[in-house]
Write a structure and sequence with these properties.
- This protein is α+β, with helices and mostly antiparallel strands.
- A two-stranded antiparallel sheet has the order 1-2.
- Strand 1 and strand 2 form a beta hairpin.
- It is flat and about 40 Å long.
Amino acid sequence: MKGWIKLHRQLLSSHIFQNEKLLKTWIWCLMKASHTERTQVVGRQKVDLEPGQFVTGRHAAAAELGMAPSTT
């Protein structure tokens, strides 16, 4: 993965910033999201993704985030 994301300083005063697991998950989602239109293969099906979208499952997300699936 290439590129970068911007975070606004207003994040410091949000409820997301107060919860470290939520902040970690939110930033992970930002970094996983597509920034251009693209096609991704999911199982045997092609899925068209628009900017801001991504495909994951709770078990895959939990493994990447180091959290329990019930938390993610």
